[in-house]
Design goal:
mainly alpha; 10 helices; two-stranded antiparallel ribbon; 45% helix; 9% strand; disordered C terminus; 239 residues
Length: 239
């Protein structure tokens, strides 16, 4: 798997014995497979069952969905990095306008803002469909074109926002809506007490909310390695 730029997905990095993260995990915790197994045991059983949708894309899409739940127009630069052709970039800008983005200069969305802020007022189903497309573009940036990616089936010269939105399968949309409901119930109340300067980093290497000059890691929606979502009443872990 070829990495275009930036950091690879965590499982990809852990499979490469030459990368520092693999060496660090191995020296400190032993086999990373055993560490992952202990983690999954510690968070308990699944509350939101998986579906036939790609679990990696579900994880990435849920990451985007949480961003839309804490700001009406989160920064889309990460997805733009995956939209490496003019038609894809045009379709993504069109998609942003569908979600009521107000573009200024070369930026699309907010990176820093005063929080807590209201989330997107766009239709929840539209947001879920958009998050699926953003997740596919994020993966395109991180690992490049992969066999089976729905993006590869689109005719390059006729890509539109609507065609990007149509890529989300019904099973994925149902799972994302269930995840959204749990995040609204268990995650947003704790975030709503954080007043001050917030930041939603565009980098997938970290996913944090900065409040009152402190970093609040979103352990509940970790962006390090999107996998099948594991959701409990008091948390929403993914690894």
């Amino acid at each position: 798997m070829t990495i275009i730029s930036g950091w690879p997905a965590l499982t990809v990095a852990l499979s490469n014995r030459a990368l520092p993260v693999r060496l660090f995990i191995q020296e400190r915790f032993g086999r990373w497979q055993d560490l992952q197994a202990r983690y999954r045991e510690s968070v308990g059983s699944l509350v939101v069952s998986g579906s036939q949708a790609n679990p990696g894309t579900i994880g990435s899409a849920f990451d985007w969905m949480v961003r839309f739940m804490v700001h009406p127009s989160p920064d889309l630069r990460l997805a733009l990095l995956g939209a490496r052709t003019p038609p894809l970039r045009h379709a993504l800008h069109e998609l942003a306008r569908t979600l009521n983005y107000s573009e200024s200069g070369g930026s699309v969305g907010a990176f820093r803002f005063t929080g807590p802020a209201a989330g997107s007022e766009a239709d929840h189903q539209l947001v879920a469909r958009a998050c699926w497309a953003l997740a596919l573009l994020t993966d395109l940036y991180r690992v490049g074109p992969t066999p089976g990616s729905p993006l590869m089936a689109l005719a390059p010269r006729s890509i539109t926002a609507e065609k990007l939105l149509d890529l989300a399968p019904p099973a994925a949309l149902d799972e994302l809506q269930t995840l959204r409901a749990f995040a609204k119930q268990s995650l947003l109340p704790s975030l709503s007490t954080r007043h001050g300067a917030w930041a939603l980093p565009p980098s997938r290497s970290t996913c944090s909310v900065l409040s009152q000059d402190q970093s609040l890691p979103l352990r509940h929606v970790s962006a390090l390695q999107p996998r099948a979502p594991i959701v409990r009443p008091d948390r929403a872990h993914r690894w």
